[in-house]
Each structure stands twice: as C-alpha cells, then as structure tokens.
Amino acid sequence: MTSAIDSPLPAAPRLIATDLDGTLLRDDKTVSDRTVAALAAAEEAGIEVFFVTGRPARWMDVVSNHVHGHGLAICANGAAIADLHAGGRLLKVRPLERTAALEVVHALRAAAPGTSFAVELATGIHYEPAYPPFHLDPGATVATAEKLLHEETPGAGAPVLKLLAHHAELAPDDFLAIAHTAAGDRASLTRSSPTALLEVSGLGVSKASTLALCCAERGISPAEVVAFGDMPNDVEMLSWAGTSYAMGNAHPAAVAAASGRTVTNEEDGVAIVIERLVAERRKYRSQS
Q1: Is 250 exposed, middle or buried (0-12, 13-18, 19+ CB in 10 A)?
Q2: Can you tell me the distance from the alpha carbon of 242 to that of 77, in angstroms, rounded to the nearest whole number?
Q3: Are 15 and 225 within 8 A, CB to CB?
Q4: CA-CA distance, 76 to 63, in Å (whole number)?
Q5: Pair 91, 70: CB distance under 8 Å
Q6: Which three-class secondary structure state does DSSP give residue 174?
Q7: In this structure, which of 77, 114, 120, 271 has its CB flanked by the most CB atoms within 10 Å?
C-alpha cells in the first residue's frame, strides 16, 4: 500500500472511475471547487471520468453539473447505466430478478430476524413499514417485501435494480457476513452505509462488472483505469482497476483491495490524485 504522494501512476490512463459518497463528495454532499477543476482538467486532457455509485440515477443531481463529454454514470452498484445529459435516462439495466429477490428476503428473514426491506425499482423506491423511510421519495408504496416484489405491484413491469435490507441491531459487517452465508449464492450482496444496510443486486452484478463492460465497449483495458472508493461496494472495482486508491476514510476492506491510498474525501483526496494524473499525462505526451 502506497500513498497518493509517492505511488506510481500509469503512463497513459484513459479512464477515471470514482465513487461518490465518502469519495468524490465532501461529507456535506457537495463537490469542492478543487475537485470540479480537477474533473474538468482530466476531461480536457482526454481522460474520461465515470461516476460509479450505489446511488440511483434520480439522486445524481449532486454531480450532474460536473459531467463533460460522455455524461455517463454507473448507478445502483452496477445495475444501471444512466445518461446524465438526458436527465438520468437509463441506457442499460442489469436487473435483480424478482424470484431471486424473494429468495433473499426469505433467507434473511430466517437468518436475521428483524430485517426490514426496501425495493429499488427503475422507477423509484418502495419499502416495508419497519424500514427507515426515504423522505426524498414521498411517492413510495409502503407494503411487505413480498407484495412489493409481486409482478403486478408496484411499478408493473419495472426492473428491480436493488433490494435493500436493514437491521436495527446487528453490526454492519456482521450483518453482511450473515447475509453472505444465507443468500450469497442467490445474489450479489454488499454495503456502503455506516449502518447495517445491505444492498442486494443480481448475481454477478457489481460496480466492477458493469465498469468492465463499459470499458470493453471502448477498448479500454483495466491497466488504463484509475479507480477511487471507500466502502465494501467498491472492493471489486478497486481490485479490477490497474491503479486504484482507497480514501483516507476508507473501510479496511477497501484499503486492502486498493493499490494505493489517498487522503480523505474532506481533504479532496480524489482531486489530489487527478492533478498528478493530468500532470503525468502532459509529461508523457510531451516526451512521446
């Protein structure tokens, strides 16, 4: 593990993949002026920037003013690719099948009694009465997970992007370990919240697998990608990218997965590395 100050950088990076919360965003959910400038400089230098987040597309307004040429974002932990230039319109969906989601619900109810659930559809979120309410989604349906996952209601025909599972008493990492044992063969399970809130996607769906698809379409290899993250839902992406940085505030699993480490999100850790990337790219081009 090396720091952002002394870690080696790829000679010709082509894409930056960055998480948002706890990584690119400050704790108040803003993008600092330094980070805004760094993102613009990267795009100007010919380095694409992908926002890769657990957030749904409708919560991407925090960065929608800072996209440049491509305007694409990987949302919902890889379950959706959104065009931020088109108001977050979904271009591709990798859904969680409702039958698999129901199997996870039943498995977690048995393994961790007291678990409550929410269902993130392509059209919005819906949740159980015991689930912490989403004040940003006043139009949500409140019902049991079994009803929410029924093919007819709510949002008939809308793909399921994620199943969310919350436990009021378990420690976050303990809850994730229990879930992996109980349902890890049915879906992809991870977490990004400081609370015991799990995020369940289709089997094989992750930030890393969707990012790999996007890069393959562009002829970009893992060695040409620089990734940033801070939580367990970033681990696969940090491992996949040729160069990766865990934030100074990162979960130990993210630190272990990354090839380097930068300072915290409050200290503009992503911007510091991007500034070095841009400087190295200019140097590389001048010598080539």
Answers
A1: buried
A2: 20
A3: yes
A4: 15
A5: no
A6: helix
A7: 77
Please report, in angstroms and rounded to a whole number, the separation of the first and last CA atoms in the chain: 30
Q: Quick one: tokens of 61?
A: 């307004």
Q: Are 205 and 195 in contact (CB under 8 A)?
A: no
Give the residue carrying structure tokens 């409702």: 98
- pLDDT, tens digit (0-9, with 9 covering 90-100), for 227-260: 999 999 999 999 999 999 999 999 999 999 999 9
Closest by CA position to 43, among listed 22, 16, 24: 16
Geometric angle at alpha carbon 26, from 136 and 259, rounded to 5°: 115
Calpha distance 9→243 (Å, rounded): 7
State the Cα–Cα distance between residues 77 and 24, nearest whole angstrom.
16
Task: Identify the helix (H) or strand (E) that includes residue 164.
Answer: strand 160-166
Burial (Cβ within 10 Å: 0-12, 13-18, ≥19) of residue 227: buried
Is the overall model pTM greater than 0.85, yes or no? Answer: yes
How is residue 179 written in tokens? 């879930």
Q: Which residue has the tokens 């926002």?
A: 51
120 SS3 class: strand
pLDDT 10s digits, 140-181: 888 999 999 986 555 567 899 999 999 999 999 999 999 999
